[in-house]
Amino acid sequence: MKIYDGGKIFVGIIIFLAFVLFPFYSNTGKVMAKPDPKIDTPEIQKLAVKKCVEPKDFMRSEHMQMLNDWRDSVVRENIRTYKNSMGQSFNMSLQNTCMKCHSNKKEFCDQCHNYMAVKPYCWDCHIAPKENKT
Fold first, then answer.
1. 3-class SS at 86?
2. Residues 43, 131: Cα–Cα separation, whole Å
3. β-strand partners of 89
4. From CA 2, how far away is CA 14, in angstroms rounded?
5. Residue ranges covered by each domain of the chain
6. What number of H helices and E strands is found in the chain?
7. pLDDT, tens digit, for every residue of 1-20?
């Protein structure tokens, strides 16, 4: 069986595969290191017990949902106190509770958000914290 214009067909297949496989072979050998958020802010160093509002694993996976729940509770229901899983109470405030300890936005928040390629909308309403340049 003879394939007419077989050379053109094979060149077309090769060009097609090159375009389809480009994202895979262009990233070969490139490894993006996992973020290592810095939690050595002066405020955290002052704490006797270095614990967040909730346990670390919960905060890594659920912090955005928790912040959305806080926003809804504060704005819609005027509830301003959060009781965590250990029974402790906290003020529901991104800027006064979260950013008080995690004042290094570039090294803490932005590092993970950039790695995960997400763009949180927190700073559409809130004023981004001014960081000290040391």
1. coil
2. 13
3. 83
4. 20
5. 33-125
6. 6, 2
7. 677 888 899 999 999 999 99
